[in-house]
Amino acid sequence: MEFIDYYKLLELDKSASQADIKKAYRRLARKYHPDLNPNDKEAQLRFQQLNEANEVLSDPEKRKKYDQYGKDWQHADQFEEARQQKASSGGFGGGYRESYSGSGRSYSGSFDDDTFQIFLSKCLEEEPEQGVHIVEAILRARITMQSYS
Predict the structure, then answer these.
(1) What span, in angstroms and rounded, lies between the C-alpha atoms of 44 and 122?
(2) In Å, how far from its chain's centre is CA 94?
(3) CA gap 49, 34 in Å, rounded
(4) What is the structure's pLDDT at 118?
(5) Which of 5, 7, 26, 65 suits 129 as a labelling partner, its CA being 20 to 30 A distant?
(6) What are the counts of helices (DSSP H) followed by strands (DSSP E) for the chain?
(7) Domains in the chain, start-ordered, CATH in brackets?
(8) Is the pLDDT of residue 48 over 80?
(9) pLDDT band at 86, cuts 50/70/90?
(10) Average pLDDT over residues 21-37
């Protein structure tokens, strides 16, 4: 399924207030309502998307997850659980001493949870789709590094 930017769909920016969200939703829902567009499949799809966007952005907890995790907002609880499990098992990273590609450089520090959380948030906030790809690459690299230790 393709990522739908709820803010863009409602023609809002991320700083929109709850009142702005409600106003935009009502205006667009009226425009695309199936009763006003009975044979228009695109209008019906748009109306469903508007309902979904309103449901997420009008709920403060869902909105916070959406803002932080983008298209993966519905999996925020699993991300947090995995982060907490990782934190209790020693955090992200540390201990890698093999040289990478013969460069002689090694990683022996600890990429702590706060740093990773800030990095992840920025990636997903600024470029949600790109952020997910970056995080996937980091996790693949981490798995590769663990196989050397």
Answers:
(1) 34
(2) 26
(3) 13
(4) 66
(5) 26
(6) 7, 0
(7) 6-58 (1.10.287.110), 71-148 (no CATH)
(8) yes
(9) confident
(10) 96
Where are the extended beta strands (E) located within the chain? none
Does the reported pTM lie above 0.90?
Answer: no
50-61: burial string, b at 16+ Cβ within 10 Å, e else: beebbebbeeee
For the segment 39-65, the average pLDDT, to the nearest whole number, is 94
Long-range contacts made by residues 96-105, C-beta under 8 angstroms, separation at least 24? 96/145, 96/146, 96/148, 96/149, 97/149, 98/145, 98/148, 98/149
Are 55 and 73 in contact by the 8 Å Cβ rule? The answer is no
Q: Closest Cα partner for 32 from 45, 23, 22?
A: 45
Read off the tokens for 18. 């709850």
Instruction: Pull the structure tokens for residue 140.
Output: 């693949």
Instruction: Please name the residue that has the structure tokens 């393709």.
Output: 2
